[in-house]
Amino acid sequence: MTVSCEVPKQELPDAAPLDELLPATRRALLHRLATGQAEGRAPSMVGAVTRNGRMVWSAGRGDVAGETPGAETQYRIGSITKSLVAVLVMRLRDEGLIDLDEPLGTYLDTPEGGRATIAQLLSHTSGLAAEARGPWWERTDGALRPELADIFGERPQRHPAGRLHHYSNPGYALLGALVERLRGEHWYEVLRREVLLPLGMPRTTLGPEAPYAEGRAVHPWADVLLPEPAVDTGHMAPAGQLWSTAADLCRFAEFLLNGDDRVLKASTVAEMRTPRTEPQGPDWTGAYGLGLQLTRHDGRVLCGHTGSMPGFVASLWADPAEGVAAVALSNLTSFFGLVPVVTDLVRTVVEHEPRIPEPWRPLDGVEPALLELTGPWYWGATPFVLRLDADRALRLGPVGNGGRAARFRAEEDGTWRGLDGYYAGETLRAVRREDGTASHLDLGTFVFTREPYEPGGAVPGGVDTGGWR
Q1: CA 244, CA 74: separation in Å to the nearest integer?
Q2: 127: number of CA atoms within 13 Å, CB side?
Q3: Closest Cα partner for 252 from 167, 344, 315?
Q4: Lateral strand order in the sheet of 293-297
Q5: Is 147 exposed, middle or buried (0-12, 13-18, 19+ CB in 10 A)?
Q6: CA 334 to chain centre
Q7: Where is the DUF7586 domain (predicted)?
Q8: Is 216 helix (H, G, I), strand (E, B) or coil?
Q9: b/e for 207-244, b at 16 or more Cβ within 10 A?
Q10: How far apart are CA 279 and CA 267, in angstroms?
């Protein structure tokens, strides 16, 4: 895939009036950020919201080097780094250089973790230990772990690969090493060329570049501060090394919502947003995809990631259904209240200013053979409706409350591939008569006919010749 390394313009064209937030919304956002910074006792905090391809609001509170921080002030972003590394891995997959279901050891000579698949490493189901060998890796120089083997302790494999979700920082160190092995250069240089520059994220760097916040810890019982170290973590860097800004992360959030053909197509980004770990219990609030966290908040499913390093916390959450995302960054150790700040920023925009739907427009150039497939179909005696969408896509839904719904993507061979639900990955085929008209639908061997248990040879097992009576 050829990617231009030219940095695009940082300011997008002026938005239409509907893209501007109302004064009441802006004040509500500022109030939530200010409350989070004050109640969280954070030395500084920056928040931002993006919608319809541009950052529509940002604000800073507190002090960084004697100034109020802003959208271009750098903070360390911790594990949001993992999502960026995951983008590099998915690019390798889309280029045909790796298979996500193959063991890592197929591509990388690694002392540990080689039996886990790349998908398991991306989704934290590899079973590897949560942390690296030796002293607290986030606060000690990477020189203590000079070789890849040095990141593993005595018991690196804590669970069988694929058994359950167990967050693993060393797992992402291995994914960074995989990128280096296949690209032949340092993972950050690959990231900068293939992702950061195309997306317009020049302030996302391996080390701090002014203006930046310095990491701080706040005493639990007194309003005093303690400086935190900011070390180069070496081989562990793909797990949480990067620094970034609210402006840069808004651009990354827009990418997570819509994709960018220069980096990853929208369907691949949607694949990253799909849960790979089973939600725990009926009231689940969190799951994990391919390098992305998922959370259910106020009835909405958000995607993104959180991050922390000594002296810093970061959070990014995007709502694909509403096209809204928010970011917050702070130079405070272990502030668990930052996630509610960000999800509340998203909620505030969605509730105050619901998304205006695109105007309805008719489809162009619909083939008569496709139009013929639309309308009612029956699985046995259960009624369904098949609808046609853009790009020859189909939607199958039950009439009433019973039955399985699914979306289908058109394939080059004239069939359709299921995208979700029970029929995800299954093939939908229109079976035609000799005259070309549609006889029935074959969906993963299930037969759908135009009439309930339509007489003829389509329904397996036949239909009683006496008919309905």
Answers
A1: 5
A2: 14
A3: 315
A4: 54-62, 44-51, 324-330, 312-319, 300-309, 293-297, 286-288
A5: exposed
A6: 23
A7: 366-450
A8: strand
A9: eeeeebbbbbbbeeeeeebeebebbebbbbbbbbbbbb
A10: 22
Averaged pLDDT in 10-residue chunks for the chain of 469 residues: 39 51 97 96 97 96 96 98 98 98 96 93 94 88 88 87 91 97 98 98 97 96 95 94 98 97 96 81 77 90 95 97 96 88 96 91 92 96 95 94 88 94 93 94 96 91 91
90 Cα distance to chain centroid: 12
Q: What pLDDT is attached to residue 401? A: 77
Sign of the Cα torsion 63, 237, 295, 50 reads positive
Structural element, H or E, at residue 197: helix 197-199
CA distance 315 to 340: 9
- Global pTM value: 0.87
Distance (Å, rounded) from C-alpha 175 to C-alpha 235? 10
CA atoms within 13 A on the CB side of 154: 0
